[in-house]
Amino acid sequence: MAIELKMPALSPTMEEGTLTRWLVKEGDPIKAGEILAEIETDKAIMEFEAVDEGVITKILIPEGSENVKVGTAIAYLGTDANDVTLDGASAETKAEESIPVAPPAKTEAAAVEEAATPSLSKVINSAPEIPEGTEFFQQTLREALRDAMAEEMRRDDRVFVMGEEVAEYQGAYKVTQGLLQEFGARRVVDTPISEYGFSGIGVGAAMEGLRPVIEFMTMNFSMQAIDHIINSAAKTHYMSGGQVRCPIVFRGPNGAAPRVGAQHTQNFGPWYAAVPGLVVLAPYDAIDAKGLLKAAIRSDDPVVFLECELLYGKTFDVPKMDDFVLPIGKARIIREGKDVTIVSYSIGVSFALTAAEALAKEGIDAEVIDLRTLRPLDKETILQSLAKTNRIVTVEDGWPVCSISSEIAAIAMEEGFDNLDAPVLRVTNADTPTPYAENLEKKGLVNPEAIIEAVRKVCYRK
Amino acid sequence: MAKATQDSNRPHKADVGSAIPNHDLPPIPGRYHADREELLEFYRRMLMIRRFEERCGQLYGLGLIAGFCHLYIGQEAVAVGLQAALQPGRDSVITGYREHGHMLAYGIDPKIVMAELTGRASGISHGKGGSMHMFSTEHKFFGGNGIVGAQVPLGAGLAFAHKYRNDGGCSAAYFGDGSANQGQVYEAYNMAALWKLPVIFVIENNGYAMGTSIQRANAHTALSERGAGFGIPALVVDGMDVLEVRGAATVAVDWVQAGKGPIILEMKTYRYRGHSMSDPARYRSREEVNDMKENHDPLDNLKKDLFAAGIPEAELVKLDEDIRQQVKEAADFAEKAPLPADEELYTNILVGKY
Ligand SMILES: Cc1ncc(C[n+]2csc(CCOP(=O)(O)OP(=O)(O)O)c2C)c(N)n1
Ligand SMILES: [Mg+2]
What we know:
The complex is a heterodimer of chains A (462) and B (354). With 462 residues, chain A is an alpha/beta fold. In chain A, strand 21, helix 12 and strand 22 form a beta-alpha-beta unit. The N and C termini of chain A lie far apart (59 Å). About 5% of the residues of chain A have low confidence. In chain B, helix 1 crosses helix 2, helix 1 runs antiparallel to helix 10 and helix 2 crosses helix 8. The longest helix of chain B has 26 residues. Classes of the chains: A alpha/beta (462), B alpha/beta (354). At the A-B interface, strand 5, helix 5 and helix 13 of A face helix 1 of B. The site of magnesium ion has 6 residues of chain B, from strand 6.
């Protein structure tokens, strides 16, 4: 009458993991709460605790196994050492301790992540900054960000990283993994939970000539520090008549995150992009993340650098170059098309690309622009594309009101009016705080279907 | 004078934190004398939290609970002991995201707490809040806050309202050792003291803020002493002993209700599980965790008093069975209860129609 122990989901985005180590062996009696195994996800190594007492009668997945899917049976827990048979009937009667046999339904996060990395033939990876014939290699967004910081830290001693859990813990989202080991505690600084304080300290250090990279565990917590970002960092150069510079980067995950509720899911792109004196970057893939983070660190201005948690673990092609820096303020045409322009940034680009593939099957050839920089906006690329397609749909993982989408609509009206064959349509998240319930959250988030519908509308199809 | 607590997170007896020149100090609290019924009630509530949270961990592993989920296991005595001294419906409470226990300490139906965790319409926040955002106006429980430190000025604001209305109520604002490093905490301390607000600042010092130990984040680790600069007295309390907590709570409530302004309770406690479900737990030793579980467990501590009061082991076993059954029912309910209706996405944003 043994029950199956299953590979648990241990983080909001976990789908599979490595069973790094068993701390028990077959025949061991265990108590509730005892640690059975260590499981590693792309985010962290975690401990798997026993919920019930019993005896480990069989280990099904040996230690060291990689890519073990959540819900896979990994061991049997019996009442005594000889108890190795699974009994359906007893599972019924002992329902309290038993674990349902079906693997958990695919989470919202998984669905979003899936949509986030469409397999696309038409994505354009070439750029003037990447010489012809450059080799590409595969890297996760998380690794690309880490490498960008590490490379800049190697070339410039003024660069240091500061934030909560960035050093010893290796980053709450593992983005700063390995930096402490390479650069030491002088340059990789763990802070208390004092966002307002350490942002101010960062700005002060920047004014005095250092190049801080301030990590917010998530951008939601940058609200604690927004005064220093706007009143101290963004305005000082201006107020001092150009004397004082503030070369600082504020970075962290922004926007979509799965099932974490209203206070932990919001996009601050439009907020920061409204502020003169700031540069705001929001890359989608690992190429841009790497090239733009390096550019941000080298910039003499304060930069808000917005990342996407859902994309951290995704693999992209990255050019093999010693020093790959991209220009700030230039959008990227990530897919060429002639019938409609879809403008987006960050994770919205993935939804736009998915929609574009589907639209191609209907005979609509969509051009997808990844803004990459939210301030200053690359109007020229948008307007040139508009002149070609005569239609714009914007896609934004964020609220609709006073958004980047609103700004693009205004630019199209003011400077591209004669080229518009249809009104600009905005596809955004719902104009509500983010709910926790799975169905409500899904309903409120931007998605490829909504984009497809909007494109059909501006193309006057159906 | 404060006990030398700087570098030890070990629980110890309640003590007056700091002597503040020219200020009154609260009396040194004693361990609460509970009668048989009270003892059982404390045990029941703590055990409910323990079993409830264990089940949460399980449901999380199965994907039924998502997002961030912070368990209260190990800290049960704090919420149970403190809230037993408050009057639900009169006094108000606010805390952070690790709040399932505070709701259950008030005897709120575990079904609707669990249903919130699974994001169902019958959840206490109708599925819209989730693990970190639960509220009960009926109990004057104001959440459920995801922003570290924000609950401290909010808690002072609750007290402001009590004083303003002169309704005899007070508030308790719980926050962690890590949260104690947010600047707004000290702005709130100052104003609460300046205006003599009836607020109890309850620091749940479990020794860690995510992966950062108190020693690595706090220049001076005696958090109880941080009120002295504002003239706020403090008690250092063994937060693993519900009767110590209950004793200190009486002193604190009496103090704030006498119009003497705020008081700080530094509860020395410990969380057994990771910070949230996705915590690597590499920052502390297994020996340390096991020592707390084996030698300082709040349930085991109370058992000694229960036995001394002549309550037989069998009665506790029976109680555990009852609670397991209730938790199982709550989990079944939370799994089967319907999701919120789609229209709910757009409700409760504003009260008025414009
Ligand atoms: C303003 C803000 N910064 C950071 C976080 C991320 N965060 C959530 S909990 C936590 C640790 C808090 O530790 P502590 O106050 O000791 O409470 P405990 O978790 O131990 O109960 C951190 C850094 C947050 N939620 N809000
Ligand atoms: Mg803590």
